[in-house]
Amino acid sequence: MSFHFELLQGGAAEPRLGQLSTPHGKVQTPAFMPVATRGMMRGIAPDRMRPLGTEMMLSNAFHLFARPGVDKVRALGGIHGMLAWDGPVLTDSGGFQVFSLGALDQVRRDGVRVDHPVYGGAVHWTPELAFETQAGLGPDVAMVLDVCPDRPTDRATVQAAVDRTLQWAQVQRKLHQARGGLQSGQALFGIVQGGVFADLRRRCSEHLVDLAFDGYAVGGVSVGEGHAAMMQGVETSTPFLPTGQIRYLMGVGTPLDLVESIARGIDLFDCVFPTRAGRFATALTRTGRLHLLNACHAEDPRPIEEGCACPACTSAVPRGALRAGFKAKELNPPILVSMHNLYFIHQLMARVRQAIASGSFAEVRAEISRHYPPAAGKAEAFKNGARPGSR
Ligand SMILES: [Zn+2]
Hints:
The protein has 391 residues and is of the alpha/beta class. The chain is 42% helix and 17% strand. The longest helix is centred in the C-terminal third of the chain and has 27 residues, at 332-358. Zinc ion (ZN) binds at residues 304-305, 308, 310, 312-313, 340, 343.
């Protein structure tokens, strides 16, 4: 099976239904990808992923380049072998991670100098190296190296990031073509930057579309700018992307951000939020966040959510036991709540897909905004885990 996206319902800037076909299987969209940054989920065994609802996973090329290295990953059977996962995989180029390491002032024409995250010393991370690394890792979808500004409201910074992103996109598009394009077994997505500036988003989108990528991502929206600015970044990008191709919003994964981005025409997401929140004792439920460390749960015999079919809730682990376990630093509570949260997000996406098909998306949207209201500005983004380093 080769790479192909089929839009089943919807237009450029409204809720859409689609099916992504990849060499490793199909994905129903809108879809959420759990994040295995270094080629391994934190605390969740590979055979748990499909039962939780996962159809596609994400890993990070820069981190795998740093350790264990491309040759070692290849020896393990590529990124699919490393993950012990036979479904579709997308790798991020590492642009976001590089820039969250404070490398924005180290951008040069041909790449960016960044500290090696494992061994120290400098790495010259270039568009060519990001592309070749991903060609070696072998995901179904590779991402271009982009420049992700940490201040999406500073026009001069954002403009420079867009210019460099487009220049590097051209380099990587040529490399992809030289490798046979989709015939290589790997798709390559372009990334729209432009911060909160509508004209820069539009310009970046249109130039990327001229280069004809296999799919498009909206980047630079999860750097602590808050929900409203994030939605502004989405709204000013999706109308200029080809209706029939897949759109991926990078680093977004709170219930509100997911549903509101789907309302604006996004098909694919990834975020560490569900698993990170789980590790910090916050569970996602149909009626909002549940903070398991709160004293009110100490003697609570109920599972996280009645009727939930995740491993934590079907095992009927009491909230009080999870609370006690978190306090005692037991291994199981972070894992159980991470699994519950991933299951919740996958279930939410399944509900959204059903709702789009049946014309009742507005009801799910209203329910989520009622139970997951946006807080103000940066504090909210930070609390959600949607801060630099979380893509
Ligand atoms: Zn559950």
